[in-house]
């Protein structure tokens, strides 16, 4: 008998605004992400498991953002030394200048220190001494550039010789001890099905299970649902639904998903169908909906997704909640623990069945599930497009962007700290689509801040050149950099392993499996980094190498863990090889995966079975549910 508790990082930060005494000296601790008025700053949690905390990001595209503000209670009169946890985000590249500069404002007075100007790593930057009176004081973060300044936390210590610990383990222990953070999270109760991750796969898994009678917790670590198909990332829905032999699979995807470019393409394939006519009518009246990626915010229907989930009485939705711990016993997950990324409160979710819809395989990793990352070798898989030797190459992260034309000239500041471009290496684009892709040779989980930040340096440097220096700068004089994603759109990281690992030849040879479930229709689409125009730096563009396929039914046994008895998965982290991932990773397809595992989980509950038991004993019941479908399509 063995019980395991797994935590992603011992250095998690669990604190908001608290005062305590360190050796009888009053000390105030303020979490930046807990500011009640965030102004123009945004919360970034993508690297929470690596650097220890969410943080506030000044994402202003070169225009300083509005101040973030809070109030604090000063425990006694006196002098307080200031410490701010931050970093110079371009320092890893030894770039000149510090674009992430910001100031601290206390009681309306600017502190005489500029933060974010030193150190490549997250650390405590000393900010001098300030006199404070007992009682309420105001504190603000004042951005100076609009170029990605970042603040994790602030300490005000009356011990002028005090220095906060910086290594993650000591820092975590220090804060938990002195801030009296409970080791007992708030128990949110027991659920039949706990779904971690609120992208298309997670939404469909949760709604499918809820409509079949399960009590469901849907946990998403962002303020919006949709993942890559949200307004934060802006990737359109690709892949076909309503495929034989289960033509009603995808009805829930259809219900939830927005009308857009891919609907238009699909409608053109069968223009006489009633559904196609309605789609074409909508798009003819709203031509901007044809923009598939990096489009207007309304193309991604965040509100629609939220309304559908909230309309399900069997779903409890937990937005802004990051799962960082899993408790297992005898190969089964017993519970997960999440923290609110705004106020740092911790919650315990107990469950019978769990689903990893995180994309990164975070829940599976926490629970000790078998997984793989990178490319398998040709000898291991027998795949045509596998390399001779295994390696860590993955399909990268897209940080998409768009621009708009305005009536007058729109200036853009110089970016000497960004990637440098010239007439040969620049890209005179007005939109950054899927192929603005970084991090192919990097760890997409551990290095996500670096990967995203490199994309920032590329986007800003390229725009600076074409706006201010290129031979065609007059053509761009009235064009404004309008939107840049700060949440990276990932394609590949961990792949959790099931009873079958789908391969390239399974798809190309139409290998029949008796447990065929959802159908993949997207070609085997593999991305590779490319450099053009003599550019010699780390690649930031990609090319797609696509092998066309016939529609293929993916076996159900790819949708549950081979060694964690009660863990399903749906999304880009299911049991496939790197090459096979190229076909199944698009979002209508992952949404159908969610529909299937929601159905399977409901049968598990009814039959007191396991995900594997559905294949072994109850697959006929799953087939009937897949035949019927679970959605309410709008057409």
Describe the protein in words.
- The chain is of the alpha+beta class and 635 residues long.
- The chain is 23% helix and 27% strand.
- It contains 15 helices and 31 strands.
- It is globular and about 75 Å long.
- The termini are far apart.
Beta content: 25-35%
What is the CATH topology classification name of the largest domain?
FAD/NAD(P)-binding domain
Distance between the termini: 52 Å
CATH class value of the largest domain: Alpha Beta
The CATH architecture of the largest domain is: 3-Layer(bba) Sandwich
Number of DSSP-assigned strands: 31
Q: Which structural class best describes the helix and strand composition?
A: alpha+beta
Task: Report the helical percentage.
Answer: 10-25%
Q: CATH superfamily of the largest domain, please?
A: FAD/NAD(P)-binding domain
Poorly predicted regions: 1-17
Question: What summary fits the major beta sheet?
Answer: 8 strands, mixed
Total domains, how many?
3
Rg estimate, integer Å: 25 Å
Average pLDDT across residues?
93
Shape descriptor reads globular
In short:
Helices cover 23% and strands 27% of the residues.
Task: Please name the defining characteristics of this protein.
635 residues, alpha+beta, Jelly Rolls, FAD/NAD(P)-binding domain, 3 domains, 8-stranded mixed beta sheet, 5-stranded antiparallel beta sheet, 15 helices, globular, disordered N terminus
Question: What is the topology?
Answer:
Blueprint: E1 3-7, E2 17-22, E3 25-31, E4 42-44, H1 48-51, E5 55-59, E6 68-74, E7 78-86, E8 102-106, E9 109-110, E10 123-132, E11 135-143, E12 147-151, E13 153-157, H2 168-178, E14 186-196, H3 200-211, E15 216-219, H4 251-256, H5 261-269, H6 274-285, H7 302-310, E16 315-318, E17 321-329, E18 332-340, E19 346-356, H8 362-367, E20 371-372, H9 378-381, E21 397-398, E22 401-405, E23 431-432, E24 437-438, H10 448-468, E25 479-484, E26 495-496, H11 504-508, E27 516-520, E28 524-530, E29 541-547, E30 552-555, E31 567-569, H12 578-584, H13 587-607, H14 611-617, H15 619-628
Parallel strand pairs: 14-15, 14-19, 15-16, 19-31
Antiparallel strand pairs: 1-17, 2-3, 3-13, 4-5, 5-12, 6-11, 7-10, 7-13, 8-9, 8-11, 17-18, 18-19, 20-26, 21-24, 22-23, 22-25, 27-30, 28-29
Helix pairs in contact: 3-13, 5-6, 13-15, 14-15
């Amino acid at each position: 008998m063995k019980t395991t508790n797994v935590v992603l990082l011992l250095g998690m930060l669990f604190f908001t605004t608290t005062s305590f005494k360190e050796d009888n000296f009053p000390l105030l601790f303020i979490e930046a992400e807990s500011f009640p008025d965030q102004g123009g700053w945004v919360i970034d949690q993508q690297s929470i498991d690596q650097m220890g905390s969410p943080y506030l990001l000044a994402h202003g595209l070169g225009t300083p953002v509005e101040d973030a503000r809070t109030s604090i209670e000063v425990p006694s009169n006196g002098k307080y030394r200031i410490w701010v946890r931050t970093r110079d985000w371009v320092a890893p590249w030894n770039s000149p200048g510090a674009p992430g500069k910001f100031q601290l404002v206390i009681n309306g007075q600017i502190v005489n220190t500029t933060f974010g100007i030193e150190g490549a790593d997250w650390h405590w930057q000393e900010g001098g001494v300030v006199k404070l009176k007992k009682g309420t004081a105001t504190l603000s973060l004042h951005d100076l550039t609009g170029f990605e300044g970042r603040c994790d936390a602030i300490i005000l210590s009356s011990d002028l010789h005090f220095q906060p610990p910086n290594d993650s383990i000591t820092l975590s222990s220090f804060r938990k001890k002195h801030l009296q953070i409970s080791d007992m999270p708030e128990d949110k109760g027991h659920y039949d099905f706990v779904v971690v991750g609120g992208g298309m796969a997670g939404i469909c898994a949760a709604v499918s299970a809820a409509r079949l009678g399960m009590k469901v917790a849907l946990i998403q670590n962002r303020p919006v649902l949709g993942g890559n198909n949200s307004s934060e990332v802006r990737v359109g829905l690709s892949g076909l639904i309503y495929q034989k032999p289960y033509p009603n699979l995808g009805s829930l995807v259809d219900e939830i998903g927005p009308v857009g470019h891919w609907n238009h393409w699909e409608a053109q394939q069968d223009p006489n169908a009633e559904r196609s006519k309605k789609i074409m009518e909508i798009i003819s009246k709203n031509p901007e909906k044809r923009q598939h990626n990096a489009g207007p915010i309304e193309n991604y229907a965040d509100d629609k997704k939220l309304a559908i989930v909230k309309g399900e009485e069997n779903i409890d939705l937990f937005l802004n909640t990051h799962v960082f711990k899993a408790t297992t016993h005898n190969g089964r997950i017993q519970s997960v623990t999440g923290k609110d990324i705004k106020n740092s409160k911790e919650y315990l979710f107990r469950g019978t069945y769990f689903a990893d819809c995180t994309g990164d395989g975070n829940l599976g990793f926490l629970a000790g599930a078998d997984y793989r990352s990178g490319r398998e070798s040709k000898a291991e898989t027998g795949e045509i497009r596998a390399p001779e030797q295994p390696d860590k190459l993955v399909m990268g992260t897209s940080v998409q962007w768009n621009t708009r034309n305005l009536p007058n000239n729109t200036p853009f500041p110089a970016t000497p700290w960004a990637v440098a471009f010239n007439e040969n290496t620049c890209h005179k684009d007005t939109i950054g689509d899927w192929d603005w892709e970084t991090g192919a040779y990097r760890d997409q989980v551990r290095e996500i801040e670096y990967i995203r930040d490199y994309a920032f340096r590329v986007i800003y440097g390229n725009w600076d050149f074409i706006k201010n220096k290129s031979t065609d700068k007059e053509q761009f004089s009235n064009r404004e950099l309008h939107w840049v994603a700060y949440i990276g759109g990932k394609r590949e990281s961990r792949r959790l392993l099931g009873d079958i690992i789908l391969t390239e030849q399974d798809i190309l040879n139409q290998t029949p499996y008796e447990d065929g479930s959802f159908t993949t229709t997207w070609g085997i689409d593999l991305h590779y980094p490319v450099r053009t125009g003599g550019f010699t730096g780390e690649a930031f563009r990609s090319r797609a190498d696509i092998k066309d396929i016939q529609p293929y039914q993916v076996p159900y046994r790819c949708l549950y863990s081979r060694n964690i008895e009660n863990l399903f998965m749906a999304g880009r982290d299911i049991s496939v090889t790197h090459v096979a991932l190229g076909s199944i990773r698009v979002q209508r397809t992952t949404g159908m995966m969610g529909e299937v595992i929601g159905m399977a989980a409901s049968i598990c509950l009814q039959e007191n079975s396991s995900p594997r038991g559905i294949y072994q004993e109850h697959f006929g019941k799953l087939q009937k549910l897949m035949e019927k479908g679970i959605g309410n399509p709008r057409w």
